[in-house]
Each structure stands twice: as C-alpha cells, then as structure tokens.
Amino acid sequence: MKPVRKVEGRAIPFGRKNVDTDVIISAKWLKTISRDGLGEGAFEAVRAQEGNVFDDPEYAGAPILIAGDNFGCGSSREHAAWALDDMGVRAIIAPSFSDIFSSNAFKNGLLAIPLPQAAIDRLMEVAKTDPITVDMESMSVTTPFQDRFTFEMDPFRQQCLMDGLDEIDLTMAKSDAIEAHEKSVDSDQSWHKPVMA
Amino acid sequence: MTEAKTLYEKIWDAHVVDQRNDGTALIYIDRHLVHEVTSPQAFEGLRKAGRKVRRPDLTLAVPDHNLPTTARVDANGNKIPIADPQSAAQLEALEANAPAFGIKYIGASDREQGIVHVIGPEQGFTLPGTTLVCGDSHTAAHGALGALAFGIGTSEVEHVLATQTLQLSRSKSMEIRVEGLLGPGISPKDLILHIIGVIGAAGGTGHVIEYRGEVFEQMSIEGRLTVSNMSIEAGARAGLIAPDEKTFAYLKGRPMAPKGADWDAAVAYWKTLRSDDGARFDKSVTINAADVAPTVTWGTSPEDVIPVTGHVPAPESFTDPSKQDAARKSLDYMGLASGQALSDVAVENIFIGSCTNSRIEDLRAAAKILDGRKKAEGVKWAIVVPGSGLVKAQAEAEGLDKIFTASGFEWREPGCSACLGMNPDKVPAGERCASTSNRNFVGRQGPGARTHLMSPAMAAAAAVTGKLTDVRELIG
C-alpha cells in the first residue's frame, strides 16, 4: 500500500446522503477480474445527468470528495474504493461511512474522513472556490480561511496509512498466536471443523 | 460473579487471537464463503505474493452472482457456456482458483449449487458461535443461526485466505427487542422492512444488532435468515439471533454439521450462546409487532418503507432537508406522486428470489397465494428463482413448481438473479418490479428499473392483481 500523509486540492462538493455502492459503481462494472480501470464507470448514473458536479471542469482532477451521511452503504464491493481511486479521489469527507466501505477504503489507502455535518456544510461552501487540505499527521482538515476541523481514526489505521504498511505482512508476523488459537480450538471443540466430503 | 455479556461479546471474546492496546483485535475466522465476483483479485494477490490459503478446510466456494438462471446443461448433459464473456471469465477464474488453492468447490451445475447465503446454512457449514465471512454484504444473514457473520471487501477476502484472521475493531451492540407477535398475513420480511424504516438505513452503522423477543423464538430459521440478512440495510454489518432448539433441529443431520458425539458436544456449547441477563447493549430499540403491516418500499433507500395500505409520502413531510431532497429525487426516479395510494401502483415485473427470500418457506408462502390463480394481464415478466438446487428439488417434490408455472411464472435455476443486475435477469428501464430482494437502490435491478421491496406473499399478490396489493385481501 502506498503511504498517504497529506491530501490537498480541490474537493468535489457532492453532498448527497446515503450514497450507496451501486451508485458509486454499478453491477455491470463488477465483472472484471482486475482492480484497474473502474474510474470510467464511477458514478455513471449521476454523470448521465446534465450539470453534474463530477463533470464540472471546476472540479476536474479534484482529489477530495465531500458527501453526506452513510457514504458507501450497501454492497461490500471493494470495486467502489477501486473506482474512486481510479478516478483520482484520495480522500472522502462525510459525516459517516458504512463500516464495510470504510474498511475497504482503508485497505486501498483511500482516506475516509468523518466530520460533523456542520463542518461538512462549511467545507461544501469552501469547495466551490478553494482547495482543502487533509493532514494525517495532525488528523485535521483545513481551508485557506483558517477553518480547522480535527477528526478521529484508530491509531492502527492512522499508522498503516501513513507508513503504507501491508496488513497481511503485519498479521503473518503473528502466526504463532494464530497457531495457538487453532490448537486450543482443536483440543476444546472437536466438532468445530466443517465436515467436507 | 462474572460480568454479564451479550451474545456478541461472547463470540468476539472466544475469537480474539491478539488484542491491541487501541481496542482493535486480531479475530480468528472460522468459516469463509467465496464466490466468483469478489474473489478473483484476492486470489491474484495471493499468487503475486507467493502466499497460500492458510485453511482451505474452513473455506467453501460457489458461484452465484453472475450465473444465468436458465438451464445450465443441455439435453445431452453438456454444460451450456455463459454467453457474456466477462461473466464467463469470472466463473472460469473461480473454477480454476478453488482447486489450485485446495478449496472445496460447488460447481454451477452441481445439485448443491446456490446462493452463498442459502447454501451455508443448508449445508451446515454455518454453525452457531462461529465467525463467518464472505465478500458479500448479505453475509449478515448467517447471524440467524447465532454465527457472527459479516460481509468483507476483496482485500479482506485476501487477508482471510492468507491468515484466517481479520484485524477488527469491536462494534457497538444494539438490541432490537420486538414486543408481541406478528398479525395474520404478516411475514418476517414485513418485520425487517418495518424495523429498517424505524431505525433508518444508517441506524445500525457501527453496531452488531441482536434481535430479541418472542417473535424470533417463534420464527422459523428461514424467517430468521430473512430478518438477519437485511441487518446491512439498516447499516449494521452483522445481525444475531440466539441459537435455540429450532436452530439445533434445523442443523441436525446437515452434511457439514457435526455428527455423533461431536454433535452433542457442539449443542452443549451452543446452549451457552445467549446474552446474559443484565448484559448491557450500547443501544436498545423496542418495536411493537402489532404496528407491523404488510410493508413495501416506495423510494430508493430501504428505509423508504410504508404499509401497503398507505400513500406515497410528500417530500415536505420529512424534517431533514437532505432527506426532503432525496425523497424528491426518489419519487422522480420511481415515477410516483406524493399522496398516490400504493394500491393504485401497477407493476409489470415480479421477482421472487434472492438471498433474502428464496428458501423453501418463501416459495411455499408465494405458492399458497398463487395456487389456482393466474398472473394479471399487465404483468409481463414473473420469475421464481430458488435459492439453491436443494431448495428447487424440495419445491418440485412438493409440487410448488407446477403452481408457479400454472399461474404464469417462470421456474428458474438457482442464483442471485434479478436482485442485482449482474446477470441476464434484469428489469427494463422505467418499469416496476415487485421484488422479494433486499435493495431498491437506483439502477439496482437494471438501469432505470423501479424496485418495490416486499415479502414473497406480497409479490405473489402483486402478480395476481397487477398492482401493489395487501396480501390479506387474498387470504381466507
């Protein structure tokens, strides 16, 4: 995973609540066996509408997306995170994220930044004209107008994101503990394994 | 005295491999279901890193999302290839990856094939007290048997394949207590739709829901699976229902379930799996079962529910301005006007199936309404898609297929079908579908498709009248 310490630039003021993963990337795009090239299908139904923010030249190449409550709800498709990444988005700011999306974003070094609705309202205003900065070191979102909003993230995720750590490697370093758990289950719960013919 | 624990806490505690100071933990995963859509990139990742699957013996693979639900073998018993090359490639990838990594694979034309969330319980792969994951959000369904089950993304699929664990932070716990019993003609689907309407599509975010109350004790395992399945539509990654005698009776004798002395030891352990008296939940919601009517969705979020006897709400009736805006967009997409009676809304398509409602009891409920009746003129397309080959065989043994076909339904092969617009079963743009699936998102059943979620009996009633219909008008 690539390290991510800071994301700065223009932000797409999308603002919509309950953005589900079918909206981010619809099912027809899920038939790929690769992680690449999904940006083309991102927000397809929204982009079909005249005057949508995604095709507004003002926000071309913007690395930040601002949305409403419950972003990424619905399906577990990681294609949603891959599609956002492929369209150049590096951070999403919203009042809340679905649990699965938040985890998928993390695994791909995509920042899912939770901020209260009042902060979102302010950032939606700023986004129309000016850039926004997300800083992982200070866990804050700032604007050129002295706005400063701090956010929370569990320290493990923060560290993984900033150092670009591979989570599988980190877990494999604990294989002794995993093996110990397996041994204790084998001895205490003989019924535990599925009977596979 | 030991501290009173919730069922969730008990299962969590029994699976902690390594506890971190920041509250996150490495959690052991007992069961992993794999399907063709969210796994190819995970297997590719393993290959690139030279890793193997740590516990193929705890992993089960089956294709479901992409498969057409038309015949899979021809008259000579030869496999019929999938016409769409991308879908075919995903199926081929799973067919190759499963044996290459030593994983048991149920093939597209095997008798046991079906939707992952139907075959897990059906095979006895899903057991109480286990942690179970799958790269699909409706994994929440398995919580109906008292398993801690949740959907994961592809990177997590790869992580579980490689390590049989996940790094997780503990969720909050939420109790949904239902007081009283459901009225005549009211199904578990109506109950869960009602619950989502009460707590909202984000109401359970960050939580694991435990469903409690007599209504769940009385409910069949199939009904419990329907309820727990849609926990994710309320924002909760997992749902739980404490295992009981019904759970044990359901599992006993299933192919992958424990046998003999192992069975007895398992049941003794499973009996300890319930929230202790005095266990504290982070959030508690009480629902009155008497308030639950036959329920349908009117909008494009599963929280947009209303009794079928009601009228389409006015966007101004919502207090939240962003919800007002969302409601306007939903009504526009759905082609509905505020104040319109739902019973006046005509439907052209009927879909009975999906991991929410494709089990034998669902098919029986629909067949009961359709028996001796025909679908209305205006209904152009009506399909029944059993959740698995075994459900299909059982239904045929009971003669349900004959009832469906006599009433004008097509009787299909098992798969995810028209739930998600990934295979040939789609609803045409601008047309409505009375659907027993779980999501009414924009474009979910195909671009421009208008979905109304409801129970199998309600979908059958809509087929008969050609309109959204209170099924109670068609019973006794």
CATH evolutionary superfamily of the largest domain in chain B = Aconitase, domain 3
**Total separate domains of chain B:** 3
Examine the coordinates and then state which fold CATH places here, giving the name of the CATH topology of chain A: Aconitase, domain 4
- Named at the architecture level, the CATH assignment of chain A is Alpha-Beta Barrel
> What share of residues are in beta strands of chain B?
15-25%
Order of helices and strands of chain A: EEHHEHEHEHEEEHHH
Low-pLDDT stretches of chain B? none
What order do the strands of the largest sheet of chain A run in, or round the barrel if closed?
1-6-7-8
Q: Could you give the count of β-strands of chain A?
A: 8
Specify the structural class of chain B.
alpha/beta
Tally of contiguous helical segments of chain B: 15
- What's the CATH first level of chain A? Alpha Beta
Largest sheet of chain A: 4 strands, antiparallel
Question: What's the CATH class of the largest domain in chain B, please?
Answer: Alpha Beta
Structural description of this entry:
The complex is a heterodimer of chains A (197) and B (476). The radius of gyration of chain A is 19 Å and the shape is globular. Helix content of chain A is 33%, strand content 14%. Chain A has eight helices and eight strands, in the order ββααβαβαβαβββααα. Chain A has helices at 21-24, 44-47, 79-86, 99-107, 117-127, 155-163, 167-172, 175-188; strands at residues 6-9, 11-13, 64-66, 91-94, 111-114, 132-135, 140-142, 148-150. Chain A has one domain (6-166): Aconitase, domain 4. With 476 residues, chain B is of the alpha/beta class. Chain B has three domains: 7-170 and 245-268, 2-Layer Sandwich (Aconitase, domain 3), CATH 3.30.499; 172-240 and 275-291, 3-Layer(aba) Sandwich (Aconitase, Domain 2); 295-473, 2-Layer Sandwich (Aconitase, domain 3). In chain B, 31% of the residues lie in helices and 16% in strands. Chain B has helices spanning 7-13, 40-49, 85-100, 116-123, 154-163, 188-199, 214-218, 221-229, 245-251, 260-270, 321-334, 360-370, 389-397, 400-406, 456-465; strands at residues 16-19, 24-28, 31-34, 59-61, 104-105, 131-134, 148-151, 165-169, 172-179, 207-212, 238-240, 283-288, 295-297, 305-307, 349-352, 381-384, 410-411, 432-435, 450-453. Chains A and B meet through helix 4, helix 7 and helix 8 of A and strand 2, helix 2, helix 3, helix 5 and strand 8 of B.
